[in-house]
């Protein structure tokens, strides 16, 4: 197979392979070598040996088999403390729904063709490093300027979104809908927690496992809901105290 390089970002994703089939491990190792954005830091032929390594090291992505003797990939995910991105690699398609319910980036059925492997890696890269923020921080003699916008990937282009124009953000598994003041929304592949980390100090607040809101656009607040535009958005108990503290209620 000819070498194919894909390098969407200069920073490599640190990955681990966990599979009880030696040939499957060799194939994945070969695939990883073909992708410049990946750095393989370890491989394991059983999930039990991988637990302590994952908990003690910085890992961005795991290629994880589901059906393994004694300790399955599902058991493994429920055991580890750190939760890297996961791409399931399995000979069985029966677990696809369960895999996605566990937040998997993708689900690859063996024998895995390289183009599907690459597609899954690109998706992981977009989740891990999805937002390009313009900044002057690299200009050593110029003070850093606080930017009021971000770029997100939507369809085949990078879309500029001004923070002031964002009403709220709704999480849909790996995707989010970003609703704006022009009564439109942008659908992009990114985790809600990534956006929460990016926007928390820019006037936004997480009020529900599925929602981040722009506080400046809140019209009213009820006990368990906020009103933004004509949308009533729920406030969950787990986020209520932090949200109310942020707005001095």
TrEMBL record:
Please name one Pfam family that this protein belongs to.
Response_reg
Which is an annotated GO molecular function term of this record?
Answer: phosphorelay response regulator activity
Keywords annotated in UniProt: DNA-binding, Phosphoprotein
Q: Which organism is it from?
A: Flavobacterium nitrogenifigens
PANTHER family in alphabetical order: STAGE 0 SPORULATION PROTEIN A HOMOLOG (PTHR37299:SF1), TRANSCRIPTIONAL REGULATOR-RELATED (PTHR37299)
Please give the superkingdom of this protein's source: Bacteria
Domain Response regulatory intervals: 14-125
- The UniProt record lists the keyword Phosphoprotein: yes
Q: What is this protein called?
A: DNA-binding LytR/AlgR family response regulator
The answer, when asked if Transmembrane helix is one of the entry's keywords, is: no
Name all HTH LytTR-type domain ranges.
159-249
Q: InterPro entries given for it?
A: CheY-like_superfamily (IPR011006), LytR-like (IPR046947), LytTR_DNA-bd_dom (IPR007492), Sig_transdc_resp-reg_receiver (IPR001789)
Stored PROSITE patterns: HTH_LYTTR (PS50930), RESPONSE_REGULATORY (PS50110)
* Modification sites for 4-aspartylphosphate: 65
Q: Which SUPFAM superfamilies match?
A: CheY-like
């Amino acid at each position: 197979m000819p070498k194919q390089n894909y390098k969407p970002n200069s920073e490599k994703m640190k990955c681990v392979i966990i599979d009880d089939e030696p040939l499957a491990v060799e194939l994945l190792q070969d695939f990883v070598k073909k992708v410049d954005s990946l750095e393989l830091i370890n491989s394991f032929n059983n999930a039990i040996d991988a637990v302590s390594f994952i908990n003690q090291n910085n890992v961005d992505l795991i290629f994880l088999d589901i059906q393994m003797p004694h300790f399955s990939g599902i058991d493994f995910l429920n055991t580890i403390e750190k939760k890297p991105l996961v791409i399931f690699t399995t000979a069985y398609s029966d677990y696809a729904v369960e895999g996605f319910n566990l937040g998997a980036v993708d689900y690859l059925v063996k024998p895995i063709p390289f183009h599907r492997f690459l597609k899954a890696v690109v998706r992981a890269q977009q989740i891990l490093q999805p937002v390009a923020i313009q900044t002057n921080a690299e200009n050593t003699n110029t003070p850093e300027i606080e930017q009021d916008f971000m770029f997100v990937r939507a369809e085949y282009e990078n879309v500029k979104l001004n923070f002031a124009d964002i009403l709220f953000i709704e999480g849909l598994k790996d995707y989010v809908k970003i609703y704006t003041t022009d009564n439109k929304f942008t659908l992009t592949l990114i985790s809600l927690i990534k956006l929460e980390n990016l926007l928390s100090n820019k006037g936004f607040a997480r009020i529900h496992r599925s929602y981040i809101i722009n506080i400046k656009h809140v019209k009213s607040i009820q006990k368990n809901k906020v009103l933004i535009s004509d949308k009533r958005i729920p406030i969950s108990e787990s986020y209520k105290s932090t949200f109310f503290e942020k707005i001095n209620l």
